[in-house]
Specification:
heterodimer, A: alpha/beta, Rossmann fold, two-stranded parallel ribbon, 2 helices, B: alpha+beta, Butyryl-CoA Dehydrogenase, subunit A, domain 3, four-stranded mixed β-sheet, globular, binds flavin-adenine dinucleotide
Chain lengths: ~90, ~500
């Protein structure tokens, strides 16, 4: 079982539906993974194998410092990058 | 205590015994009053926002006073990053509510009072700063909403506080006691005051020594004895009393609120007094509060502007005019104006600096430029929105007409609803109701209840335009600019 955190920036200039995109990306990630993945909204003080960071714009200002992520940080910052993650995330 | 949810906030208001009057009567259950409730929902949104993972990155911070997680609305800004995040949070909330969510005045008052009390104590050896910290820790730990109460009625604008015929036209100390002070007077235009748990009262302007009784700052609960509020009515407010008027309201769920807050001999214990006669610090407190509040408008009004621009674009689509080049250009202009305000909000934050007390203050010149633009751009944005929408936004029959099945006795025998739906049709495939909804929203924001927040508050809130021009003149460094010109032009005097 792998623990995946989903983190959002504050969304002041979000040009797409970040929550909907995060759900599609999580599903795609699970479909491609051989492990069982557990997704949750990122919580401070918790350790994550990977993190999906859903930003609203190119500034990508989501604060990821408070999280302990062992693996990768996957960033989306707009419709295109979210689609890209959906298609390629592993 | 943990952060409150919106629902818990609304419940917390019920335990207050706040005295509220409206339309000449006392309002007993003001929490559920249909005219007041949308403004309460709007404050509740600031709580739900913090509870939502999509926004909590902006809304939840760690208190520098306690180390606890708190709502940013109760935060002391610790960096320029914090100042920028404040503006971003306000923009996001404006997008959600399309209204004034009322909690910014408190946040701006906390930061101004925190740094000013530190400097008063340094000069006079008073303990205002520690008192204020205690108050703020209580606010943070209990996630309270606080009214930042600055504006006095001021009576004759040509006279000083002590020069008024009625001494109550500025809040003043009427009696000093061993254990505290008695204050009288009033604060006008108080945003969200009824929806607040507490009030943080500050002087309205710089004070001369002769006005030292008016140089007073304190906090007090909304239901303190001798304190009451009279609701400020808004354009179209009684539509909220109509049955089935959700379309006609334009924005059914959210709204703003202002009220007259009267202090009729209210006792304030010493521990809640943060300025008492040190008249030379009144100006500092006012300038700092106004600075923060002028920054705030570079966030909240921009978020509301986002919704206005979206509504104008929808109106164009529903009218079938969205492809016209001048419509596209007007939407570009609206966006340009709105983002210019945002640039100002972010810029005055990015150029902020640490005060002696440690919290961060915005760049005063840039914040004043921000607010000066706010006194103009929303007006131009609504002008363009009205242009794009067409006259229907102010001439359409009511929702009740659109839904009426009363037959009109003419040859075709159609109902009122059928006639309305026939003649208010727009582009193919667009429902008449959706067209009505977007038009009514624009009416609400351009000249209905929400125009209080989007237009007149943009003009006068945080100070009328001339107040910013005075600050721009003071901070504008004309001498420095003359020196540049002399050097480049080779002028030797
Ligand atoms: C919607 C709204 C919400 C608000 N919310 C709050 C709040 O939450 N808390 C708060 O404390 N305040 C609040 N305010 C008050 C705001 O700060 C004041 O409206 C502003 O300071 C102007 O004061 P005034 O309305 O009394 O107008 P006035 O001071 O009467 O100004 C009207 C005009 O007269 C000019 N003028 C006034 N006095 C002089 C003078 N001596 N010399 C030359 N010209 C003068 C002004 O420049 C302006 O052009 C709010 C205001 C609005 C409209």
């Amino acid at each position: 079982m792998k623990n995946i955190g989903i983190k959002f920036c504050g969304g002041c200039r979000a040009a797409y539906d970040r929550r909907g995109a995060s759900e599609r990306i999580s599903k795609a990630m699970q479909d491609r993974s051989e492990d069982d993945l557990h997704f949750e909204w990122a919580q401070e003080g918790k350790t994550y194998d990977d993190m999906i960071v859903m930003c609203g714009c190119t500034n990508r200002c989501a604060n990821v410092k408070p999280y302990d992520v062992h693996g990768e940080l996957f960033y989306a910052w707009g419709e295109d990058s979210a689609k890209d993650l959906e298609q390629n995330i592993k | 205590m943990a952060l409150m949810t919106g629902e818990q906030y609304i419940e917390s208001l019920r335990s207050l015994k706040t005295q509220v009057y409206m339309f000449g009567e006392k309002v007993e259950n003001w929490v559920d009053h249909p005219i007041i409730r949308p403004s309460i929902n709007c404050v509740a949104a600031t709580y739900d926002f913090a509870d939502n993972p999509e926004y909590s990155d902006l809304a939840v911070v760690t208190s520098n006073l306690t180390g606890n997680k708190i709502n940013r609305f109760t935060n002391l800004h610790q960096s320029t990053e914090d100042l920028k995040n404040k503006v971003k949070m306000q923009r996001a909330l404006g997008q959600i509510t399309a209204s004034c969510f009322q909690r910014c005045v408190g946040m701006d008052a906390f930061n101004a009072t925190f740094s000013t009390t530190y400097e008063i104590d340094k000069k006079y050896g008073t303990d205002y700063h520690e008192r204020f910290k205690k108050f703020l820790i209580d606010v943070q730990d209990n996630d309270l909403t606080v009214d930042g109460a600055m504006t006095d009625p001021k009576g004759n604008r040509g006279a000083s506080p002590s020069g008024q015929e009625d001494p109550d036209l500025f809040v003043r100390i009427v009696e000093e006691r061993e254990d505290g002070i008695i204050v009288s007077g009033a604060k006008v235009h108080q945003t969200g005051s009824i929806n607040s748990h507490s009030h943080l009262v500050m002087p309205t302007q710089a004070m001369a020594e002769a006005d030292s009784k008016y140089a007073v700052a304190f906090s007090c609960p909304s239901d303190a004895e001798g304190l009451f509020m009279i609701y400020g009515r808004q354009s179209c407010d009684t539509r909220k009393l109509e049955k089935d008027a959700d379309v006609d309201l334009g924005n059914k769920k959210y709204g703003g609120q202002e009220a007259l807050v009267v202090f009729d001999n209210v006792f304030i214990p010493n521990e809640n007094v943060y300025l008492k006669g040190e008249s030379e610090f009144a100006g500092m407190l006012v300038e700092r509060f106004a600075g923060y509040h002028r920054q705030s408008y570079g966030g909240c009004k921009v978020g509301v502007g986002d919704v206005v621009i979206g509504a104008a674009a929808l109106a164009a689509e529903y009218n079938g005019a969205q492809k016209a080049s001048h419509i596209k250009d007007k939407l570009i202009e609206m966006t340009h104006l709105n983002e210019t305000l945002y640039c100002c909000g972010i810029a005055c934050s990015a150029e902020g600096y640490a005060t002696e007390a440690g919290n961060y203050q915005i760049d005063l010149l840039l914040a004043n430029v921000c607010k000066q633009n706010v006194t103009r751009f929303p007006y131009e944005i609504v002008r363009l929105a009205e242009d794009i929408a067409g006259g229907l936004m102010v001439t359409m029959p009511s929702q009740a007409d659109f839904r009426s099945d009363l037959k009109i006795p003419t040859e075709s025998g159609k109902t009122i609803g059928e006639w309305c739906n026939k003649f208010f049709v727009g582009a193919p495939g667009v429902s008449v109701e959706n067209r009505m909804r977007v038009m009514r929203f624009l009416e609400n924001i351009c000249l209905g209840a929400a125009a209080v927040g989007y237009r007149t508050e943009s003009m006068h809130g945080a100070g009328s335009p001339q107040a910013q021009r005075i600050m721009i003149q003071r901070q504008g460094n004309i001498e420095g600019k003359k020196a540049f010109a002399k050097k480049v032009a080779g002028i030797v005097e």
